[in-house]
Amino acid sequence: MEAPEGTRVMMRFGELLYDDGMLNPMTSVTGQIKGLDKEGNLIGGPGVPDTAWQSDTYITKGIAVESYTPRFTFHAFRYVEISGYPGEPNEDSIEGIRLSSNLKKTGSFECSNSLFNKIQSMTEWTLQNSFEILRLSRKTI
């Protein structure tokens, strides 16, 4: 798809959606689930910034087919919101690339309690997922 030179395509990343299905970009920063409570107070731990989110902005060159892959950064996310895209994006418009650290297993835990074994397994998967990210790659703009 072609886009005029200077078209700004913005991508924001998040882990959760609001009840109306829109992206909650406050859920992607440093693994902290953010948002507002019923009284309008920011939810989060000590030192949580008032406003912070992950986003990329790509400015088109105006050539026939353009590709965007971020360098020197990555984003951990479940959802991406794309605005400014010229036309209607579809499944072929973007691609998430899974990256992972090569972690060596140095120990293990197993016992006769199946609940503890399940907790151990979930903990290992959670840790591994913390080191795996999807790098968003725009296939064509």
Comma- or semicolon-separated keywords:
Jelly Rolls, extended, 141 residues, two-stranded antiparallel sheet, 9 strands
Tell me about this structure.
The chain has 141 residues and is of the alpha+beta class. It has one domain: Jelly Rolls. Helix content is 12%, strand content 28%. The protein is built from one helix and nine strands; from the N terminus they run ββββββββαβ. The chain has one helix spanning 114-130, and strands spanning 8-14, 16-17, 23-24, 35-36, 42-43, 54-59, 79-83, 94-100, 132-138. The strands form four sheets. A three-stranded antiparallel β-sheet has the order 6-1-7, with no helix packed on it. The N and C termini lie close together (5 Å). The relative contact order is 0.26. Mean pLDDT is 78; it is low at 134-141.
State the end-to-end CA separation.
Answer: 5 Å
Mean pLDDT: 78
Instruction: Assess the beta-strand content as a share of residues.
Output: 25-35%
The helix fraction, in percent, is 10-25%
Second-tier CATH architecture: Sandwich
Question: What is the top-level CATH class?
Answer: Mainly Beta
Total strand segments? 9
